[in-house]
Amino acid sequence: MTRVSPPILESALAGERLSSEDAVTLLRDGDLLEVGAAANEIRNRKNDPEAASYIIDRNINYTNVCIYRCKFCAFYRPDGADDAYVLSWDQIGEKIRETIDLGGTGVLLQGGVHAKLPFSFYEEMFRFIKKNFPSIHLHALSAPEVYFLQKLTKQPMRDVIARLRDAGLQSIPGGGAEILEDSVRREIWSLTKAPVEKWVDVHESAHALGMRTTATMMFGVGETIEQRVVHMQVVRDLQDRTGGFTAWIPWTFQEENTALDGQVRLAGGHEYLKTLAVSRLFFDNIRHVQGSWVTQGPKIGQTSLAFGADDLGSIMIEENVVAAAGARNHMDQAGMERIISEAGYRPVQRRTLYDACQDPCCTGPLPVPRVPFADSPELPSMPASRDIDDGIATA
Ligand code: SF4
Predict the structure, then answer these.
(1) Number of CB atoms found within 10 A of residue 176's CB
(2) 3 C-alpha vs ligand 1 centroid, how far in Å?
(3) Does any domain span residue 380?
(4) Which residues, at least 6 apart from 196, have a Cβ–Cβ distance to it below 8 Å?
(5) Domain of 333: which CATH number?
(6) Is residue 389 part of a domain?
(7) pLDDT tens profile 197-255
(8) How many Å lie between the centroid of ligand 1 and the Cα of residue 332?
(9) For residue 43, is it within any domain?
(10) With CB atoms 3.0 to 4.6 Å apart as the test, which of 26, 39, 312, 369 could cross-link to 280 if both were Cys?
């Protein structure tokens, strides 16, 4: 094998931007340890070389009902299925209370895309959370959910996100990205829920409103290396325009119980670490890169800190989506601190917007809700799930 890494890595370490072709070359032919060492060097220039961060938060899935049937998903249920649910406000409140008791600072709130929930459902849910748990950071929805609400309301994307922000939404996770290349999205049945253009529109609109979001990539769904790099280029271009991404979070597809089970070649630990490292080099404009212990397990998660990651994400008090697809790794705060310490770093608990990081990329102004929660009128109680499911969605 020709050793292609050194010239490309030397220019990356000299501060030159990697081209898409460079990234493809490194992913295809680069030496894992050489690429990893360069990524580690860049990680340590962009972040405290002695520290690695994590967050205590909880994934709350307010519903598992979804109108889509993404081939990689084991979580969705059709409306009316025996195990379909929509959480009540009380159930959401209880989960947040438990999160706070465990030292948690935020929730990542996502659903399926439930066609019968009206826009007011989301506003009321966010207001309920921010009124009762004002210290909790609300990192919620995903581009496909927001795009669906835009179609529902027929309002401009920016206005839809502004309404959600005014109800309490503080930032948007990068979910629903999978591979940002439309022929792949068509293949895995995620084109309809949000083509690349719409995923970008949601994030760009949020950034224009002063909100921060994250960028994810779920790889190993049958895409080529070139298509993976197209995804990275879409995200880097958007970050050049807005600077609104706090972090880049690549993770690997989990196949159990999905329509893709046995249909694609899964990405293993070697491919995960190499993709992580190449992306650390490629994203010269994103400060933080998150390692995925949830899909790769704690051992590779720990190792990711030497391959470009400066953060291990959440201890995941609750996670349902990748667990449904077979990733059932668990971690408590002591376990997270232990794996970070064993890897030679000082564990630092951060909040959702990387506020252990004091640099402008992570500490820009956040939107302030127009209606102070303390003065909000009493919220209506949560309707029963049956009432919601029987209702017709309206704007
Ligand atoms: S990935 Fe999301 S949008 Fe796709 S089927 Fe699953 S819940 Fe629905």
Answers:
(1) 27
(2) 41
(3) no
(4) 180, 181, 182, 185, 234
(5) 3.20.20.70
(6) no
(7) 999 999 999 999 999 999 999 999 999 999 999 999 999 999 999 999 999 999 999 99
(8) 27
(9) no
(10) 39
